[in-house]
Design a protein that fits this description.
The chain is an all-alpha fold. About 75% of the residues lie in helices and about 0% in strands. It is elongated.
């Protein structure tokens, strides 16, 4: 992609961000309706608390859908699970089996299973009251973010939070509510990467041991030209099946998120 295309897409991103920011600003003030030839758009409804009008809600909903994949990776258990599964596949020695689609699907459903308590809490404190029109949009967002922040803090090391706060030139807060979500998510991802590699290291050890035993046996038999992987791969698959490896890995991943 050339410099011209980069500048073009960069301007488009800036324009899109400006439009979304303008919508949020319009939603927070007593702005007049937007009129144009042939019609008009009302940013605020006629109610007492002035909630967002239907067109603005649709735009914000579609914007949230576009951010959902990044949120799934950055603020859930998906990162740790998919990294551990990828390391497991590499440790066995099969670079394309199971396929990426299978690993990603398994990681997504394990993520949903792990995040169910958090999602249920968000639904009870934010989504249901908002749908019942008991709270407004801003209050629903604040109440919905709080259970997610508790989950992120429980899985994040203090060192990573301190590092991110130091990079942001901010003081270390005294409570969870004082930590911004944009500072908490990077710290959470750093902790998840470290934890995933620790689990992956433990998974790798028995498979390396099998490779070393097979290589030593082939060397002692004088079978230098035989690739060790050709003999160790069936043994690793057999061992993994006999110990019910998939169930053990799944149990270890799910339990690793429990306090």
């Amino acid at each position: 992609m050339g410099p011209i295309m980069l500048r073009k897409y960069g301007r488009l991103c800036v324009y899109a961000f400006a439009i979304i920011a303008a919508l949020f600003v319009c939603a927070g003030v007593n702005a007049a309706d937007l009129s144009f030839p042939g019609g008009s758009v009302s940013f605020l409804s006629a109610g007492k608390d002035q909630p967002l009008a239907a067109p603005v809600k649709i735009i914000l909903f579609l914007t949230a859908l576009s951010v959902l994949p990044a949120l799934l990776i950055a603020a859930t258990a998906f990162t740790r699970i998919i990294i551990v599964l990828a390391i497991l596949r590499q440790a066995i020695g099969m670079t394309s089996t199971p396929p990426n689609a299978v690993l990603i699907s398994l990681a997504v459903f394990l993520t949903l299973f792990t995040m169910t308590p958090v999602l249920q809490r968000i639904d009870s404190v934010a989504v249901e009251p908002y749908l019942a029109e008991k709270i407004g949009e801003r209050e629903a967002v604040e109440l919905g973010v709080e259970p997610l922040k508790r989950f992120l803090v429980a899985q994040t090391r203090d060192k990573d939070i301190a590092l991110v706060m130091e990079l942001a030139h901010q003081k270390l807060p005294d409570s969870i509510s004082e930590i911004g979500i944009f500072q908490l998510i990077p710290a959470f991802m750093l902790s998840e990467l470290r934890t995933a590699f620790e689990i992956g290291f433990v998974i790798y050890l028995p498979f390396i041991l099998i490779d070393m035993i097979v290589a030593s046996a082939l060397m002692s038999l004088g079978m230098i030209m035989v690739p060790p992987l050709a003999m160790s791969l069936p043994l690793k698959i057999l061992m993994f099946v006999l110990i019910d490896g998939w169930a053990l890995i799944t149990e270890a991943l799910v339990r690793s998120f429990q306090p």
